């Protein structure tokens, strides 16, 4: 649904212009006029309004300046007890944070603005803030909170009979319910209400958005004739605007679903021509994709291939190399080449398709994880605010009760530093927990943005270990003894790899897995891993001799290494974990299973990277399960320097 949330930022600008009367100027002259108001000796509500508008003018070009102007407006408004100005200053600051993608700060500031508007019964501002807060929650995939704020915005808008905002809230509610077939009917109800209200106030932009939303929803519901009625209305409204190509592409999809292929081609072609006027490459690519899909359904495979390839180039040009649009391109090309009996090309695109689907799955997982981390950051931020407020409260109590005493200062300092230390300890505890689960760079990315993308690494060395006769040992040791022994070994392994700057990936029973060269790439990845492998081998041998002397059962180990490119990222919705994927991982596992007791077995790719630093014994080409014959080497010792 393209037209659901488009009013968030533009409404902010419109409201500033209408509310404060700054209109009819070119941007440069407007900024000059605003600066004149700000620099005048009369520091009044007009100055506050001018500072707010200056924040809006600099929002995109200079966010830091925009925040400074917003804070100046807030300070002056507080000094003048101009509560309306305080609220709109906070709104302006939040808009800057929102554009920067700093959603935690945007949410914090907008909730402050909402409180100001509600306490001072400024309903229009409250309705606007409720809607904007809902948009943030929706964009962070928290649909429950999004619905709550949209419904509150709707209620306030209905109380003040603000039809425009009522329609906007209804559109947003419809957008949330449009995501699942089970709630399509509810989505339709909200969109139709928004449509009726938009018609009542004759707001063409709202009518166009509502019509397009209903048309697209009807298409999803397979009600194609009804879909066309609303989409054609949206088309007529959007003639000559940048929204037209998207609508034309949806119309093309509807005609393709009706098997009216000539009209499908016609509307997708019109969408392409219209998008080209605005250099809207995404819409151009989607138009070419629609044309390709239509030709494919008609069995005109060569024409389909030509358009798929043009679409692919456009999607890759604008950075959509991890999108569902590109999934459709690869899927279509694989099908077309298969039908042309060009199985080599078909296989190539099927392989690309599988790789892309894996990446998109990881992105979706990251998105879900980002939602949880976003909620966590909000809670943490609120806890810090609560603690700070507690400190302020105690400060005021001390100042009012025991003014001037040295003892007061000592007590105040004690409370302040105790609370500050408490905040610091809580923050460190949460940071340490995250760092214990994820690499530092990934954890920082998650804390900063709420998400962490999967990344490609060109050169990494992966190590696997496995204990020999583990099952037999489980019969000789009780459960607690077994766990203690494994823990002793794994703690030693952790210390060894930490010494060489290697990242632990996971343990699976009696198997230990780590990788060198990520999340920060380094040239010495293979050399560092070979050093670690020798240290692990020697540690296990020392423990073996010690336990033989004591007459106790002992562990023996096989170790395998392989080097090459892989993908790394976060997986899972609960108890999330950093993991790695790629053929290099599978071959490293084969190196371990093809190794011998007490030996470090490496592939030819790893050997080429470490041969100048370690003494190695060539084992020949050895069959590895599922991988064919592979050159293998035993790493014996470090070479003398």
What keyword list fits this structure?
8-stranded mixed sheet, globular, 8 strands, Serine Threonine Protein Phosphatase 5, Tetratricopeptide repeat, 4 domains, alpha+beta
Quick recap:
The protein has 25 helices and eight strands.
**What's the number of helices?**
25
Radius of gyration: 31 Å
Number of domains: 4
- pLDDT < 50 stretches: 4-26, 363-376, 401-406
Q: Give the integer mean of the pLDDT values.
A: 79
Kindly describe this structure.
By secondary structure, the chain is an alpha+beta fold. The chain folds into four domains: 1-118, Serine Threonine Protein Phosphatase 5, Tetratricopeptide repeat; 121-237, Tetratricopeptide repeat domain (Serine Threonine Protein Phosphatase 5, Tetratricopeptide repeat), CATH 1.25.40.10; 365-440; 454-638, Nucleotide cyclase, GGDEF domain (Alpha-Beta Plaits, 2-Layer Sandwich), CATH 3.30.70. 69% of the residues lie in helices and 11% in strands. The protein has 25 helices and eight strands. Strands 1, 2, 3, 4, 5, 6, 7 and 8 form an eight-stranded mixed beta sheet that branches. Helix 5 runs antiparallel to helix 6 (103-119) and helix 10 (184-201) runs antiparallel to helix 11. The chain is globular, with a radius of gyration of 31 Å. 40% of the residues are buried. Mean pLDDT is 79; it is low at 4-26, 363-376 and 401-406.
């Amino acid at each position: 649904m393209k037209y659901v949330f488009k009013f968030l930022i533009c409404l902010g600008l419109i409201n500033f212009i209408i509310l404060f009367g700054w209109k009819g100027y070119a941007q440069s002259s407007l900024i000059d006029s605003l600066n004149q108001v700000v620099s005048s000796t009369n520091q009044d509500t007009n100055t506050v309004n001018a500072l707010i508008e200056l924040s809006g003018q600099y929002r995109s070009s200079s966010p830091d300046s925009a925040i400074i102007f917003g804070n100046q407006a807030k300070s002056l408004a507080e000094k003048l007890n101009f509560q309306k100005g305080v609220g709109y200053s906070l709104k302006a600051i939040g808009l800057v944070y929102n554009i920067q993608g700093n959603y935690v700060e945007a949410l914090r500031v907008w909730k402050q603005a909402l409180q100001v508007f509600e306490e001072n019964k400024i309903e229009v501002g409250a309705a606007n803030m409720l809607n904007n807060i809902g948009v943030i929650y929706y964009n962070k995939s928290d649909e429950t909170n999004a619905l709550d704020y949209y419904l509150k915005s709707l209620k306030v808008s209905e109380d003040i009979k603000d039809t425009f905002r009522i329609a906007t809230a209804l559109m947003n509610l419809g957008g949330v319910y449009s995501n699942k077939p089970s709630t399509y009917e509810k989505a339709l109800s909200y969109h139709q209400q928004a449509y009726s209200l938009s018609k009542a106030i004759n707001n063409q932009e709202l009518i166009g958005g509502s019509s397009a939303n209903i048309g697209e929803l009807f298409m999803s519901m397979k009600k194609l004739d009804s879909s066309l009625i609303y989409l054609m209305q949206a088309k007529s409204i959007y003639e000559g605007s940048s929204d037209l190509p998207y609508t034309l592409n949806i119309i093309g999809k509807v005609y393709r679903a009706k098997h009216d292929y000539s009209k499908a081609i016609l509307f997708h072609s019109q969408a392409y021509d219209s998008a080209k006027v605005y250099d809207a490459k995404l819409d151009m690519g989607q138009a070419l994709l629609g044309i390709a899909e239509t030709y494919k359904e008609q069995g005109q495979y060569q024409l389909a291939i030509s358009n798929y390839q043009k679409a692919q180039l456009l999607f890759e040009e604008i950075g959509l190399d991890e999108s569902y649009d590109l999934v459709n391109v690869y899927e279509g090309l694989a099908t077309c080449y298969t039908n042309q009996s060009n199985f080599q090309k078909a296989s190539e695109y099927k392989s690309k398709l599988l790789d892309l689907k894996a990446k998109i799955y990881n992105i979706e997982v990251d998105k879900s994880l980002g939602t949880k981390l976003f909620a966590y950051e909000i809670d943490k931020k609120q806890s810090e605010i609560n603690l700070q407020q507690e400190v302020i409260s105690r400060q005021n109590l001390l100042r009012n009760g025991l003014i001037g005493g040295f003892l007061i200062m000592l007590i105040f300092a004690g409370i302040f530093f105790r609370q500050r230390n408490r905040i610091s300890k809580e923050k460190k505890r949460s940071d340490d927990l995250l760092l214990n689960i994820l690499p530092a760079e990934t954890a920082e990315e998650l804390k900063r943005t709420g998400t962490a993308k999967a990344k490609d690494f060109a050169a990494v060395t992966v190590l696997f270990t496995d204990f020999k006769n583990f099952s037999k040992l489980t019969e000789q040791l009780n459960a607690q003894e077994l766990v203690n022994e494994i823990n002793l070994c794994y703690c030693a392994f952790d210390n060894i790899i930490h010494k060489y700057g290697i990242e632990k990936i996971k343990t699976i029973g009696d198997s230990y897995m780590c990788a060198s060269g990520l999340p920060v790439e380094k040239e010495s990845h293979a050399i560092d891993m070979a050093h670690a492998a020798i240290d692990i081998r020697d540690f296990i041998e020392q423990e073996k001799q010690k336990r033989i002397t004591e007459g106790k059962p002992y562990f023996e180990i096989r170790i395998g290494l392989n080097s090459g490119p892989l993908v790394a990222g976060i997986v899972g919705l609960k108890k999330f974990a950093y993991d790695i994927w790629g053929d290099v991982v599978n071959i490293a596992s084969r190196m371990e299973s093809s190794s011998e007791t007490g030996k470090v077995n490496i592939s030819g790719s790893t050997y080429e990277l470490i041969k100048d630093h370690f003494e190695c014994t060539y084992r020949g080409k050895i069959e590895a399960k599922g991988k064919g014959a592979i050159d293998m080497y035993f790493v014996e010792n470090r070479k003398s320097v």
